[in-house]
Amino acid sequence: MKSLLIVDDEPKICSLLSHFFEAHGFRTRTAHSGAEAIQTLHAEVPDYLLLDIRMPGMSGLDVLRLAKKEYPHLRVVMVTALDNVEMAEQALTLGASHYVTKPFSFQDRHWARAFFDERRDPITEELDPTAIEDVRPRDSVAAATHANMRMRLGELLITKGLITPSQLEEGLRQQAQSGEYLGAALVRLGFLTETQLVETLAEQLKIPSVRLATYEIEPEALEKVTPKVASHYHLMPLALREGVLHVAIADPFDVQTLDELKLLLDCDVQPVLASQSEITDAIQRHYGVGASAVERLLDTAGAPSATPAPTRTEDLSAPGDDASVIAFVNQLISSAVKDRATDIHIEPFEGSVRIRQRIDGVLYELPLPPDLVKLQAAIVSRIKVMAALDIAEKRLPQDGRLKVRLAGQELDLRLSVLPTSFGETVALRILSAQMLLSLEHLGLAASHLGLLRQLLSQPHGIIFVTGPTGSGKTTTLYACLHQLNRPGVKILTIEDPVEYQLTGITQLQIHPKIGFSFAQGLRSMLRHDPDIMMVGEVRDPETAEITIRSALTGHLVFSTLHTNDAAGGVTRLLDMGIEPYLVASSVLGFIAQRLVRLNCPACTREVPTTPEIRSQLTLAPTEPLPPTVRQGQGCAACKGTGYKGRTAIYEFLAMSPSLQPLLLRRASAQELAACAQQTGGLRTLRQDGWLKVCRGLTTPAEVLRVT
Known about the structure:
Elements: E1 3-7, H1 11-23, E2 27-31, H2 34-43, E3 48-52, H3 60-70, E4 75-80, H4 85-94, E5 98-101, H5 109-116, H6 141-147, H7 149-159, H8 165-178, H9 182-188, H10 194-205, H11 219-224, H12 227-233, E6 236-241, E7 244-249, H13 255-265, E8 268-273, H14 276-287, H15 291-300, E9 314-315, H16 325-338, E10 341-349, E11 352-359, E12 362-365, H17 376-386, E13 398-406, E14 409-420, E15 423-431, H18 446-456, E16 461-466, H19 473-484, E17 491-495, E18 506-509, H20 518-526, E19 532-535, H21 541-552, E20 556-561, H22 568-575, H23 580-586, E21 587-599, E22 604-608, H24 611-616, E23 628-632, E24 643-654, H25 660-664, H26 669-679, H27 685-694, H28 700-706
Parallel strand pairs: 1-2, 1-3, 3-4, 4-5, 7-8, 9-13, 16-20, 16-21, 17-18, 17-19, 19-20
Antiparallel strand pairs: 6-7, 10-11, 10-15, 11-12, 13-14, 14-15, 21-24, 22-23
């Protein structure tokens, strides 16, 4: 029986090679470093030495040099992931008999030449160092394609008109630096989409491709591959048929992964091409968020507990330990940001835990590994540590903030923790600077935009924005402040909480526990001689009175009220005890708003309008109703909802002379709205929504949902 010493700093590679050669009658030993290899050689000289050329510390070339010096007749085969002619020449010059590059296939004829060809001695065979191509793995399909991949793929992409010759040259330069294959480099540079790359590779290599967003994955395949394996190798099992496992992969040249899978799963593996991002989404969708981290944690250490750490900005993009609660929380937040979520809710129940994301105003439940409930307390503790909260306090509500960095972008997260019967429930609000919009991007109709600009040009008075929680009032107010923010103007705000930091604007946070309320803050703010003020919310008569009087003393003031429509803001102030004449003389206008989801541009289609919808969503009698409207059908881009993104619908009630008599006699909100419609052309929320339906931006059902 021939003996073989396998030297590679990756234990998995050693295990794979050892298993293969033992199956072919070799007696194998392994070493994971150059120093260990020399010690093993001194103990027993094998017939063959299989040596990785790149290792930390003593390299494979160093081991080769020493081994050939002491054991000149030792047969040495060099293996490396680098297709490097100079290294091959050096290895052959030092006495290596063969040189094989990764990725390799065990059906490659060069393995046979090095170890199994009995007709000639591979050691005595003279190899020309200049003919290195002759000893490269060209016979397997993947290795053969890899040898000429750059030119063939590049030419095909240029022929199809997907890239230009200059983009190909840049991709080749990036490939040489990073070591990735050309297609991945072109996608990373933005020259090519993942879908275009998959379609081209499938055509070039004659390998089937799949769209995972719509593919129905068989449960047997999911049971065959654990979350840890799927995440580690970045693949998605598709089907298990007649002992062959079909898996979706993004890199068709990673033969090593396929060979390892055959050994790990004890079955044949058939690769199918899919895009990198679709594989990532499929792993999360079918195994659950952070399933790999949960499995590793429970395998190694049970349910861990979190320990306090210094408050800092957490970099979610930085690599870390995959098997940790930190990794799970990072994946959870990263996934929410990627899905455009505004909130994350972690809710414990008896024997289970539920995590939901709010996307475009609607909550969606995330798929989770079933054992996550064992880590629920540790996950909450980790989030509390990130926000510098007391992890020992589990009986009282706690609020905090934390900062995270993801892909170079800093995000603020607002945290609220509540004690429940089955543990602490967590609400995380994600605040992104990208939500700071200009007036032109608020979704205002041209008439409304002109009216708002007219209101903002007034030197004093108060503008109220009304609507329920989550209707976008803060975004509208911040857009107004951004429009007015300039060096010659002093702007002060008092908020609860301060959601976004605005450059050039002084922002105050109330603290009711120490007596710093809206009313107290307003009194102090007036001593700083501001030109413009914003009050986060008028909640009580005292705050309402100070806000109104601030507007009467020459300040332009912005604030919010929780009412269903614009006219309801008048009656709310009157109910708080504000005299009608004060409202009439200080308020410039009331703006009611709601948020509606936008049709997904990737799957929107024309659908007929029904008589019921026409009766519910009507404009003025003179305006025609279209026979069809646009509606999203659901696709991968919108995760099957038909909606992607949101915009606002508005209702403007500007104070006018015609409204003042009604206001002074305390008329109802309905009377005020009717008068404004007749004299001022007030357009209701539902009517403004119908205009957006006619423009194809949203659907009738969505407008009816919020109005």
